[in-house]
């Protein structure tokens, strides 16, 4: 408690005033985050930087994990939530304010990395000197690249090269060079892809027509662009070598400064030659090139690494006290006696190194020198942040484009518009808020309280003496201390003070994690909250000129007004209250929980657009259905789920709640605070059809008998349905069904889409959704503004589909696409193959001439939507286990509408134009396109699609994780064993050079992934740990309906053929969960076997 109060006094009276003063100078502000793979040392490094400000002891750095404020973070030893702290650092003549954000490294919490990266201008990327570049290292470098922030590199855990790998200083130098090459290779790949994309876009806009002899030169764009500033190189000053756990770190520049004085060589020369193939010629007293060729020690090894290796050898390995004393004297280092006598040599090592090469000084100096300030934000990044969806910056309203100057200038002037981005909402215990904390007393207040206590004690002693003098010797008087039961007035006042506090402490409060990009945010200020779908053009049209948030604002979609209740300085576990925050700073905002769900843009100008959504590396795929243990607690559960949805950037709360077990623990213990019952994880599957196999299960060529068996199977199932008398399936797989009232007949066949088309449609789902919105507005006669870029993307999608759908059966298929499904933007296609039926194309927005095209028959046009609706229902839940379809094309081959007597009496016949089929329809006058015929047509279309699907070989598609595992050679076999047991498939493995670590890449079904990480750790004694990320959907090869049909199969599998069928197991599990019929044999009344010898 005393330490907390002491820290509060230091922070409250000196540090807080200093930070508030530094917040007003954006040129000396650095907003940065720490990014790395899991267990590469982010939080340990953060502890070292926090200790440099005196907030924690330097001895506890790496052990306290100050920024891991949650209990489960401390227990598991990994960071789960990103947290921020503001640090002060003096570098040269200037003082800097560093807003540092520590982020998680585990892939399960990658959404927290996205929220941190958006608010920063730079990043410290940490790489383990032993493990090198890992999967999550590549992911964070990609996220930093996408957000256009500048990274610097820290090669951490250098001590492992000495203590674990036992490398010599020369071997370590070679190893470090290779790691740097790996990191730069990732950056180079990102840069190359960007340049080639930009060049392709320019050529598309230029509209070049390549000649017959033209050769495409891919290298030209790369040669013209300068990329030297992108890469990490110690001589550029953007690399620090460190061991955070031992408290030391250095850059090349530090040693260049030391040796320039000793050797008389210019510092600039040493900076360029300390890293690389240079050596010191002792005779000539010159630095020369070609150390490797001449067998000489490189300068970096001779002047830097050898000294560190010698220190470790003397302190840790040999424990040579005399040598240590000499080294300490030469380095000018003094350590405390208790450190030198400590039984653990690492304590002495840390004490020496933290004075000789303090890690905080090396890292913070690099940050101040190499990372940009808020004033240095690039126009490219600003334009990208303001360009929502497919809209380009140039297409935004003029007033919106003018706000770009406010971003770039990062002005804190009174007239500058306030622009703030909230990247996430995080829950804070109400007791942790500054206004609810017990405030430490000042010296004046302590003196006053002391005087009051002394006076009360004197009064009490006087009262006791008076009572003793008046009472007899046999009587004893017990006096109550002040504030006891004898002082009811004070008890009442205490109760009055404490009651609201208890009531307030009982709930969690949400604080917005945000950054100010322009203007000054003040407490009590009224602002606009702009939702992700807010359109500034629409808002400016609906709002009066010069409208402010404090005015009476008319209702505008996705725009609300609110007051900023409180502003906080984020100090890790602590929050400090502020009155105002200038531009360029990271802050916490209270009072937004009712207005912001996950992220939002805040501004005083309605012309401000919402920022582009955050880039999430991993998407949730597994669902869990939950319910309260006691039904009466349902309102608490609903409220708790709403709070969880707000607190977790990656959670998606629908009817079911998404996330991992941490989410359920948060819901149980923090948000809902009730007992909940959670179902087993709900694993999604997809249903598809494939081409008829050419080989049977014993690799024999199939004859016609297998195909006959499939058709026979469908015909056997058909009579059981209610369409038995109206259903016909021909040998080609064409299913024809007539409606119960005999007015309409539909013929449909199903085809498997090529895998490339399925992947393209899945990747372009947002574009297909936009295409459907445009078509709907054209059908309804509404005008919808579409940007030229969106039209280009749609045209590109159409061209790619046409290129992929080649062959006789796909002739002109792209032009005949009727709809996409399910939900009108899924990876399934409905084709219009009805002879003589011309309907508007789905690509009509690309060709204005098609907009006026009329279908051949008005009746068909009226019921056109019924066919589409039936297709959407069929693709949403397939016949195998009611899961969505994927990669299936349904072609409508026939659609007839018959005339009845009633129809003839109701409406006259409608004759089609020349060359078109005559169609008749009943009931147009009475019910229109929403009558009974429409409903029956929807049902018939759905059943036709389902039966057409069943007429083809059916398969399940499983969701697949990519699995990256780092393991040592001795446990490699056990890792393979666990993967094989869980239906995993190893893609490739590679050995990390210079180590005994293997990096294994595999794919694993999501359905088999539960408990996988724990089993891997148990089997390998903790030497291997997997990272799972959802990757793709994969067809399960086995047929769930397979039965032996050929003689060879009967001989091989037997008549029962009851061997394990993975697809059937998954399908039955889903059907059982959904309450569908499952065909399985169960033994109800089994007789116990008895032996002749004993009657058991």
UniProtKB/TrEMBL annotation:
InterPro entries: EFG_III/V (IPR035647), EFG_V-like (IPR000640), EFL1 (IPR056752), P-loop_NTPase (IPR027417), Ribosomal_Su5_D2-typ_SF (IPR020568), Ribsml_uS5_D2-typ_fold_subgr (IPR014721), Small_GTP-bd (IPR005225), T_Tr_GTP-bd_dom (IPR000795). SUPFAM superfamilies: EF-G C-terminal domain-like, P-loop containing nucleoside triphosphate hydrolases, Ribosomal protein S5 domain 2-like, Translation proteins. It holds the Pfam family GTP_EFTU. Residues 27-375 form the Tr-type G domain. GO terms for molecular function: GTP binding; GTPase activity; ribosome binding. GO terms for biological process: cytosolic ribosome assembly. One of its GO terms (cellular component) is cytosol. PANTHER family: ELONGATION FACTOR-LIKE GTPASE 1, TRANSLATION ELONGATION FACTOR-RELATED. This is Elongation factor like GTPase 1. It comes from Gadus morhua.
């Amino acid at each position: 408690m005393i330490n907390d109060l002491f820290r509060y006094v230091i922070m409250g009276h000196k540090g807080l005033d200093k930070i508030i003063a530094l917040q007003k100078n954006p040129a000396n502000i650095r907003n940065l985050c720490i990014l790395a793979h899991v267990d590469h040392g982010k939080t340990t490094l953060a502890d070292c930087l926090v200790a440099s400000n005196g907030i924690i002891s330097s001895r506890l750095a790496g052990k306290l994990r100050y920024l891991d404020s949650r209990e489960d973070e401390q227990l598991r030893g990994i960071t789960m939530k990103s947290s921020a702290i503001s640090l002060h650092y003096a570098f040269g003549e200037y003082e800097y304010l560093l807003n540092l954000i520590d982020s998680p490294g585990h892939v399960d919490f990658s959404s927290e990395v996205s929220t941190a990266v958006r608010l920063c201008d730079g990043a410290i990327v940490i790489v383990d000197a032993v493990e090198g570049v890992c999967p999550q290292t590549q992911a964070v470098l990609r996220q930093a690249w996408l957000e256009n922030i500048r990274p610097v590199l820290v090669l951490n855990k250098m001590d492992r090269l000495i203590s674990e790998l036992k490398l010599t200083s020369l071997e370590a130098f070679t190893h470090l060079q290779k790691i740097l090459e790996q990191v730069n290779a990732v950056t180079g790949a990102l840069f190359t892809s960007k340049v080639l994309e930009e060049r392709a876009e320019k050529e598309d806009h230029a509209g070049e027509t390549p000649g017959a002899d033209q050769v495409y030169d891919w290298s030209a764009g790369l040669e013209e662009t300068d990329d030297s500033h992108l890469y990490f190189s110690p001589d550029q000053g953007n690399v620090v070598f460190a061991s955070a756990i031992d408290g030391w770190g250095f850059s090349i520049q530090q040693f260049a400064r030391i040796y320039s004085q000793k050797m008389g060589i210019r510092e600039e020369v040493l900076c360029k030659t300390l890293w690389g193939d240079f050596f010191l010629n002792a005779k000539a007293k010159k630095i020369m090139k070609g150390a490797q060729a001449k067998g000489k020690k490189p300068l970096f090894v001779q002047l830097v690494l050898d000294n560190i290796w010698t220190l470790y050898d003397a302190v840790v390995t040999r424990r040579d006290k005399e040598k240590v004393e000499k080294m300490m004297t030469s380095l000018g280092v003094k350590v405390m006696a208790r450190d030198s006598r400590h039984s653990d040599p690492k304590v002495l090592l840390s004490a020496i190194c933290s004075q000789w090469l303090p890690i905080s000084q090396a890292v913070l100096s690099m940050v101040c020198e190499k990372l940009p300030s808020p004033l240095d934000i690039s126009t490219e990044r600003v334009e990208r942040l303001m360009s929502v969806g497919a809209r380009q910056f140039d297409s935004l309203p003029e007033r919106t484009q003018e706000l770009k100057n406010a971003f770039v200038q990062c002005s804190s002037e009174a007239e500058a518009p306030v622009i703030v981005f909230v990247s996430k909402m995080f829950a804070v215990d109400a007791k942790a808020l500054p206004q609810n904390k017990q405030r430490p007393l000042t010296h004046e207040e302590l003196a006053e309280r002391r005087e009051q206590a002394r006076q009360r004690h004197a009064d009490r002693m006087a009262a006791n003496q008076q009572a003793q003098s008046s009472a007899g010797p046999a009587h004893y008087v017990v006096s109550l201390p002040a504030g006891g039961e004898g002082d009811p007035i004070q008890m009442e006042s205490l109760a009055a003070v404490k009651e609201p506090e208890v009531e307030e402490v009982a709930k969690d409060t949400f604080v917005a994690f945000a950054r100010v990009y322009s203007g000054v945010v003040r407490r009590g200020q009224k602002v606009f909250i702009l939702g992700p779908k807010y359109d500034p053009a629409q808002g400016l049209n609906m709002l009066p000129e010069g409208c402010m948030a404090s005015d009476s604002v008319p209702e505008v979609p996705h725009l609300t007004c609110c007051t900023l209740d409180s502003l906080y300085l984020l100090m890790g576990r602590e929050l400090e209250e502020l009155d105002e925050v200038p531009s360029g700073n990271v802050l916490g905002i209270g009072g937004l929980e009712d207005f912001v769900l996950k992220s939002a843009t805040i501004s005083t100008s309605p012309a401000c657009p919402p920022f582009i959504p955050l880039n999430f590396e991993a998407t949730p795929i597994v669902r869990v259905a939950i319910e309260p243990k006691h039904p009466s607690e349902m309102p608490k559960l609903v409220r708790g789920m709403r709070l969880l949805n707000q607190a977790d950037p990656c959670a998606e709360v629908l009817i079911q709640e998404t996330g991992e077990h941490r989410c359920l623990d948060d819901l149980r213990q923090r948000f809902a605070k009730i007992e909940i019952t959670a179902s087993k994880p709900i694993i999604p599957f997809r249903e598809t059809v494939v081409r008829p196999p050419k080989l049977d299960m014993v690799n024999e060529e199939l004859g016609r008998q297998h195909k006959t068996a499939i058709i026979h199977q469908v015909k056997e199932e058909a009579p059981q349905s209610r369409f038995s008398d109206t259903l016909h399936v021909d040998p080609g797989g064409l299913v024809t069904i007539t409606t119960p009232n005999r007015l309409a007949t539909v013929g449909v066949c199903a085809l498997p889409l090529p895998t490339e088309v399925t992947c393209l449609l899945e990747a372009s789902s947002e574009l297909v959704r936009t295409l459907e919105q445009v078509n709907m507005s054209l059908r309804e006669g509404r005008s919808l503004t579409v940007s030229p870029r969106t039209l280009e993307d749609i045209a590109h999608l159409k061209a790619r589909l046409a290129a992929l759908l080649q062959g006789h059966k796909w002739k002109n298929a792209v032009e005949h696409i009727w709809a996409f499904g399910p939900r009108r933007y899924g990876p399934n296609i409905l084709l219009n193959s009805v002879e003589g039926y011309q309907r508007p194309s789905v690509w009509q927005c690309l060709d204005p001439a098609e907009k006026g095209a009329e279908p051949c028959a008005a009746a068909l046009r009226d019921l056109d939507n019924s066919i589409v609706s039936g297709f959407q229902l069929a693709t949403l839940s397939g016949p195998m286990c009611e899961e969505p379809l994927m990669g299936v094309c349904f072609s409508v081959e026939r659609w007839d509408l018959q005339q009845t007597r009633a129809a003839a009496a109701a409406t006259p016949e409608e004759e089609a134009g020349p060359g078109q089929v005559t169609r008749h329809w009943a009931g147009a006058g009475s019910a229109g396109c929403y009558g009974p015929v429409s409903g029956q047509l929807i049902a018939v279309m759905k059943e036709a699609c389902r039966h057409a699907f069943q007429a083809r070989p059916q398969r399940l598609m499983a969701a697949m994780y990519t699995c990256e595992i780092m393991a040592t050679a001795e446990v490699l076999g056990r890792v393979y064993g666990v993967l094989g047991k869980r239906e995993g498939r190893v893609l490739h493995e590679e050995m990390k050079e210079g180590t005994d670590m293997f990096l294994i890449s595999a794919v694993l079904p999501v359905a088999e992934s539960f408990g996988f990480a724990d089993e891997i750790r148990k089997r390998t004694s903790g030497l291997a740990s997997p990272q799972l990320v959802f990757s793709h959907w994969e067809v399960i090869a086995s047929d769930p309906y397979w039965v032996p049909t050929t003689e060879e199969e009967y001989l091989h599998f037997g008549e029962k053929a009851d061997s394990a069928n993975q697809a059937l197991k998954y399908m039955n599990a889903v059907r059982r969960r959904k309450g569908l019929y499952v065909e399985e044999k169960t033994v109800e009344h089994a007789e116990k076997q008895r032996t002749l010898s004993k009657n058991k």
